Amino acid sequence: MKKPWSISTTVRNPERLRDFLRILRKLEGQPFDKDNQVKYQVLLVQERLYKPLNIPLKFRKYYEEPETEIPYDEAEEIFYSQNYEDPPMRGRQSVNPLNKLGFSIARKGYGPIIITELGNRFLAGDYDIGYIFFKSLLKLQFPNPWSADFSEKEGFNIMPFIGVMHLIHKLNKKSVKRGLDKTEFSIFVPTLISFDLVDEHIKRILEFREEKNKDRYILNFAREFYETKKVPDKKINNLFDYGDNIMRYFRLTRYFKVSMDPLGYYWNIDVEPSRKVEIEQLLDMYTGESFRFKTLSDYLSYLSDITKPTLPWEKKENLEKVAQSLKNMIIDLIKKENLQVTQNEQKILLTDVQILSKSQLENYISRLRGFNLELKERLKKIKLMGDLNRIEEIIVTLRDSKKLKKHEPEQFEKLITEALKIINDEIAIKPNYPVDDDGEPVSHSPGNKPDIECYYPTFKAIYEVTLNTSKLQWVQEGQPIMRHLRDFEVQHQGGEIFCVFIAPQIHNDTYSQFWISVKYEYNGLPQKIVPLTAEQFSVLLETLLNLLKRDKRFSHKELYELYSIVINGSKQLTSFSDWTMFIHKTVNDWQQRMITL
């Protein structure tokens, strides 16, 4: 029976691989024998990166009180209490996506554990996640000497990243509808097991679009693919799991554009229009056929070499084409939207690409991408400012806690970012989530930075947002937030700095710990943290909406007033529960004052 390909069924969110790799680094230089396979999995348990299904009663405190460290010997006992038939296999499964994506070389009998150069860049704090996964997914191919999972005997012969790029690129030439929707991608991408099946799959996709009974078509296609008359529902459901997983990895590269609803349920994936020239160059260079390696050693050397595979724009003339294409696209955008640009921005577009060296071209292209993104963000803000309907939509969403908690984390961060930009009185608002070439988030903000940074003429603020409303909210969000705020305070000394924490609901333990930080201290100094529920934050937008309807608005100074009252009020109160009620009253009183302006 044939089988579809997948990237990682172990880790759904690609960014979680960074933590898995961080733990593997502790064993670097040691053999990945059975003992270290078990040790690796135990370390994942100890760090709470892997939670076994059956936690013995005496150890459940560690999951109810996650601020408490799990001693290694007790993590080991938790692991062995699962009674796995093959305990070392768990470590092998956990390391598999790291090996598959070229971040590590860790296998019994193949020398010491190695974190590759690509893996080390992934671990670096200043890594560009798009570049990391682009290079990683370009190396992914089936078959390869490192894995027996997808063999040539089973019909595999594909570089999936390039193969899917060929599929969508060719399909777009034959159909008015661009890209693939969630169902099409999930059915036809994991089953694209060879580069020479691209044309056949395009034919099937076009048939599928014309078919009225979609479920019947999917079932018949699955029967043919799996070469069996009876296809269990699980086999078809797996295709959707694989498709969702593949999409999440592909979109991080910025070579695929994903349009997604806030809940992450409906999505469409296409090749990225702003990288048209690079994509065409890649497709000219690679058919999607897998490379051949004489020995496993040759393949491991290839995996470890960050310069491989060769990129077409390593040639200067191809870089010039990329730069010129970006310039033309930006000029067209400026004309179409009648955007105003500064003299310095005009100078960027007047640069003669032919006189630039290869390294200068690379820097110039990076500047053009940044400029293109800035223009699109500028355009979005112009449209947001006059869109009263969008303001009302955000207010309704913020007040529907059940719906809100179903949002993707990055979509919630985007929602708050939009709300802050609507207020329109900032110097800069900088979300830290990685974005595609249109400024849409491709993942949530990394754990080592604030979610959103805001710079106003008279104060600065970070905004930390979470969908977590459980009793673990404080442990998982509170400590990192206070640390982010302290780091931000150190970086921007001399002015007033606030942190605004927003969640659908705020747990009492979170209020309690923020109260201590505000009224007394965190690491020796008090902090200015304003906890607001999503509904309380929506009051700010509701207030603005009421003012806009009267051709008025409030400024950052009124925001400063609100935040200051919340902070200063804590000094006169004796308990965090009083502060909780005080915050609620303060927000409502502030709204009444603003409305009567």
Give a description of the structure.
This protein is an alpha+beta fold and 597 residues long. It folds into 4 domains: 14-125, no CATH class; 160-285; 315-384; 387-595, Restriction Endonuclease (3-Layer(aba) Sandwich), CATH 3.40.91.50. The protein is built from 25 helices and 10 strands. Strand 4 (256-260) and strand 5 form a beta hairpin. The N and C termini lie far apart (72 Å).
Strand order, main sheet: write it out: 6-7-8-9-10
Structural class: alpha+beta
The geometry reads as globular
CATH architecture of the largest domain: 3-Layer(aba) Sandwich
Portion in beta strands: 5-15%
Features:
five-stranded mixed β-sheet, 597 residues, alpha+beta, three-stranded antiparallel β-sheet, 4 domains, 10 strands, 54% helix
Itemize the secondary structure elements and their pairings.
Elements: H1 17-25, H2 34-46, H3 61-64, H4 72-80, H5 87-100, E1 104-105, E2 114-115, H6 117-123, H7 129-139, H8 160-174, E3 180-181, H9 182-188, H10 198-210, H11 214-226, H12 233-252, E4 256-260, E5 267-271, H13 276-285, H14 296-304, H15 316-337, H16 343-349, H17 358-385, H18 388-398, H19 401-404, H20 409-423, E6 428-431, E7 452-455, E8 460-465, H21 473-491, E9 497-503, H22 508-519, E10 529-533, H23 534-548, H24 556-569, H25 576-595
Parallel strand pairs: 8-9, 9-10
Antiparallel strand pairs: 1-2, 3-5, 4-5, 6-7, 7-8
Quick structural gist:
The protein is of the alpha+beta class and 597 residues long. The protein has helices at residues 17-25, 34-46, 61-64, 72-80, 87-100, 117-123, 129-139, 160-174, 182-188, 198-210, 214-226, 233-252, 276-285, 296-304, 316-337, 343-349, 358-385, 388-398, 401-404, 409-423, 473-491, 508-519, 534-548, 556-569, 576-595; strands at 104-105, 114-115, 180-181, 256-260, 267-271, 428-431, 452-455, 460-465, 497-503, 529-533.
